[in-house]
């Protein structure tokens, strides 16, 4: 509201929840947008201990400022993952988040454990049971053809961690549950963060019955919570999850750059034992290192906010 851009200053965790809430508002009330009336406080209006000074709190309303929507707006804010939501005044709802403490809030993107991939044996396997060394369906960027590529490692693997995802529904009924910072492939072969998708966008999909790539329209996006986070890395840097073509990468808004950055690991992985094996729990050390240093070596527009 001040016109200074200060209300856009907030932690990554707060931004992620706010972007998810914006999608929910758009789905709940077509034509209505989420409005942030106060983010970071530059004028000293709040008490010294206020989370507005840490970028962890926002005051929100809807673009039409309809107070009758506040009850549902608060509910959507809770579902979006805000840790604290309450009616602070008749003019807005106050939302805040915990501090940035977990690796999940900082590093990478993942799929939910019940998501499935097609293996080279013709069988479908849940990501929660997928092993390193198996070959799964992917898109070869050099030929734009479907191939089976080996799972070299998991960038993130945690069967018990609870995480916020975006649940994407396509016109055919296909669904994909993915973290907001993950890159998905549009029908024109470009990549976009999951959280930037909107109903009406078209994703690239594998039609296995016809052994062909087709495009499918997104009809709904919603925020959900799931237990289990899984992010396989294949040799070609892509994979097909629930028939939807996706990147193996997240956080960095460039498939080419991310794939290039992981080249050393792909080379080393080829020297490892090729037998099937289970991955270790947690964010892979090389991925953690890359994401931690990305702020210092990459332009800001290439990083997920």
TrEMBL record:
Domain Hint positions: 108-207, 210-254
Catalytic activity: glycyl-L-cysteinyl-[protein] + cholesterol + H(+) = [protein]-C-terminal glycyl cholesterol ester + N-terminal L-cysteinyl-[protein]
Domain of life: Eukaryota
UniProt membrane topology term: Lipid-anchor
InterPro entries documented for this protein: Hedgehog (IPR001657), Hedgehog_Hint (IPR001767), Hedgehog_Signaling (IPR050387), Hedgehog_signalling_dom (IPR000320), Hint_dom_C (IPR003586), Hint_dom_N (IPR003587), Hint_dom_sf (IPR036844), Intein_N (IPR006141)
GO biological processes: anatomical structure morphogenesis; cell-cell signaling; intein-mediated protein splicing; protein autoprocessing; segment polarity determination; system development
Sequence intervals crossing the membrane: none
Keyword set, alphabetical order: Autocatalytic cleavage, Calcium, Cell membrane, Developmental protein, Hydrolase, Lipoprotein, Membrane, Metal-binding, Morphogen, Palmitate, Protease, Segmentation polarity protein, Signal, Transferase
PROSITE patterns in UniProt: INTEIN_N_TER
GO CC terms, sorted: plasma membrane
Gene Ontology terms, MF aspect: metal ion binding; morphogen activity; peptidase activity; transferase activity
Protein localization: Cell membrane
Alphabetical list of CDD domains matching this protein: Hint
Coiled coil region boundaries: none
Assigned protein family: Belongs to the hedgehog family.
Biological role stated in the UniProt entry: The C-terminal part of the hedgehog protein precursor displays an autoproteolysis activity that results in the cleavage of the full-length protein into two parts (N-product and C-product). In addition, the C-terminal part displays a cholesterol transferase activity that results by the covalent attachment of a cholesterol moiety to the C-terminal of the newly generated N-product. Once cleaved, the C-product has no signaling activity and diffuses from the cell.
Protein name: Protein hedgehog
Species of origin: Tribolium castaneum
